[in-house]
From TrEMBL:
Major enzyme class: hydrolase
Residue ranges occupied by any Adenosine deaminase domain in the UniProt entry: 27-359
GO molecular function, one term: zinc ion binding
HAMAP family, alphabetized: A_deaminase
Organismal lineage: Bacteria, Bacillati, Actinomycetota, Actinomycetes, Kitasatosporales
Cofactor remark: Binds 1 zinc ion per subunit.
Chain positions recorded as Zn(2+) binding sites: H32, H34, H220, D307
Gene name in the database record: add
Stretch list, region Disordered: 1-21
Organism: Streptomyces liliiviolaceus
Protein's UniProt name: Adenosine deaminase
Keyword Iron: no
Biased composition (Basic and acidic residues): 8-21
GO biological process, one term: adenosine catabolic process
Amino acid sequence: MTASPTDSRNDVRPDVRPDTDTVRRLPKAVLHDHLDGGLRPATLVELAAAVGHTLPTTDPDALAAWYYEAANSGDLVCYIATFEHTLAVMQTREGLLRTAEEYVLDLAADGVVYGEVRYAPELMLDGGLTLPEVVETVQEGLAAGMAKAADAGTPVRVGTLLCGMRMFDRSREIADLAVAFRDAGVVGFDIAGAEDGFPPADHLDAFAHLRAENVPFTIHAGEAHGLPSIHQALQVCGAQRIGHGVRITDDIVDGKLGRVAEWIRDRRIALEMCPTSNLQTGAATSIADHPITRLRDLGFRVTLNTDNRLVSGTTMTREMSLLVEEAGWTLGDLRTVTVNALKSAFIPFDERNALIRDVVLPGYDLATR
């Protein structure tokens, strides 16, 4: 019998707790990462000077530290407010091209072999670009980054998720964009923004259109708001994945799963979990006690993500290393969440399967020899 691409490999010891150097070499996959939350500090300084935007500081290291500290508020709304400065420099073709290209190169440097980047085109119109021009420009920048990464011997595939902002009323327009650009690198859709008070059901027209056009979508839910937001995202809106979803633990008592938790686990609905970000927004209390470990042990399809690399001062290597150091994760656990992410990626099955079989599993072999 032929082994499946996700079978354990005899030459990888899954019980090993890898050091940071080993983690850095591991192939990685990230499903939940915001373009406007991942700029390089030095790039932000240069682009801000070019457009005349005032930053808290023009020293790149100090700016990185300011972002990290400002985001550690324990409140999602305050966390989101830090995006004022990154969005200010992403209103022009030049700013979007550079940030998109560098985004890909930073993923490649972190060992990411597949990534999905999300952003809200409606927040990038102040410089005179139209919605389609924003998407076209970002796709051009991502393509340039992928070409450079491939030439450097660190290929990475990046798909795009277009976000509608849940507090505004343009989600149907953004859904139309996702449909229009689905053959040009856009792989799905998301609803983002302040969660509490802005239920995903307010955007049913967008979700119905996406389902009719066979475009997959994820929804931010269960981060700042509780179990009802997850239920609504799944059963009312039809999400195929859940962004964050940490509050699903509200439906698990003494190890017994409630109806919503059972639905998510049994139907292999991926949870896009972001430990460091969740600490900053108050959705979790520590890495050691983050729900991702408990949910992994209960058989949920958890995935590991960065959310916002600048705002959270993180990388996939850091997120993995924190779980190893503070939650006792092993090489096998890291491989599992990587495979989980690829299983739930918004790209065709054969392409997901090939990445698991030909890139991730052999990459784990090589990184641990």
